[in-house]
Design a protein that fits this description.
This protein has about 250 residues and is an alpha+beta fold. Among the domains are: about 35 residues, no CATH class; about 35 residues, no CATH class; about 45 residues, no CATH class. About 20% of the residues lie in helices and about 10% in strands. It is built from 5 helices and 6 strands, in the order αααββββββαα. The strands form 2 sheets. It has a 3-stranded antiparallel beta sheet with strand order 1-2-3, with no helix packed on it. The longest helix has 13 residues. The chain starts with about 25 loop residues before the first helix and ends in an 8-residue tail after the last helix.
Length: about 250
Amino acid sequence: MPVNKFGIRSGGGCQCDGAASGRGVSTAYVDQQDAMRVLKAGDTMGGNLDTGSHQVTWLPTGLPGSNSDATRWQQVENLVTDATTNNGMVPAGPLYLTNKQYVDDQDALRVLKAGDTMTGDLRLNVGTDAVRLVGCTDLSSGKGFSLALGNIQNQPQFAVVAPPQTQIPVTMEPTREFLVRSAGQDVCQLGNTDAPPIIIIHKNIVMNGHRIVYLSEPSNSQDAATKNYVDSHKPLITVRAEENASIGSGA
């Protein structure tokens, strides 16, 4: 079959496959090659796109239409900024991102080490320890420790006094009386409304062989007597005992 100068056989289309540069090609070959390219107007890739370290630029400024769409880096930054500044979610796990409001709210529930005020009970469990220590152990000269009970006047207190001053013992100072109870019963009361206040004993005192010293001379019939008082009244006591009479002042 004759061929013209364009490589087309007379009476039929070109069957060239374009293997040689400059030769004419058939429509089928063009369509085949064209189908392997991505249309500028929009298309679907059938494999990976390797940009060879180059960038994909001029993506749409709006949000992507689906989860698999590429988006601009600026959009990613905007989304992260929005999520971190307008995050009102309560974190569900220890590593979840949270917000300042949540942190502040949780922090307000804690007691400050520098000093704070409790609004509820504080209970200290001993756990696996043998002893649980509560208090202050680092007092130095000129410093003190006290525990307020109800108000600032009711408190046990202790302060370290610098030598050569005499060290003051641990002091319990209530506004009025201080009552000691055991098993639901009153044992003794330190102080009352009298002026000066007195000590009231509600139970027997067991001296365990020790003495009661520095007593005043008795003035009432129920007062404890000193050895000196008894010794000075021995003649009167002997006479009254022989007469089986009450012992009075001797008058």
